[in-house]
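Look over this one:
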Amino acid sequence: MTHGSSVIAELQAGHRETETLVARIEALPVQDLRCRALADELTAQLVRTAVAEETHLYPVVRRRLSDGRALADQEVSAHTRIGEILKELEDLEADDPRFTEALHRLRAEVSARIRDEELRLFPELARVCPEQELHTLGQLVRRTMETAPTRPHPLLPTSPPAIKFVAPGIGFVDRLRDTLSGRPH
């Protein structure tokens, strides 16, 4: 992430990190056991980003954009679909053919979300939000990603205020589990 930048720059930097992780996974031979660790790293990146967006970005999108409610709901639905794939991946070993198939579905879904955010959501947000507000949102997103969960939790609330209270506690437990298991976070 790019410290001190707007929410758009923060999330675009996260998109590049996500794309890099996907490319690293795809560069490995099918069923290579190193894919498991990279998939765990990708999972943590995607879950942290989803929590940060749902906590801080989408409330602003709902308030500021004329079609904001529908747009935010569409993004949360996409996060739910991505979370379901991540949950499926969590239970599969890299040498399982279903692992590769789930990764392909994940890549397609994540690529569509990145494209949509960068071509539609971010330009709209930049048009209606003052620069200072975008920088404040960037700080909030960055801080939230530091404490957010690193694993998919299908029952995690997706809107404030509940997500603001629940996510840091779940994030703490996830990081403890990650540390004890040696999983990247």
Notes: The two ends are 15 Å apart (CA to CA). The CA atoms of residues 3 and 10 lie 8 Å apart. The chain has six helices and no strands. The mean pLDDT is 88.
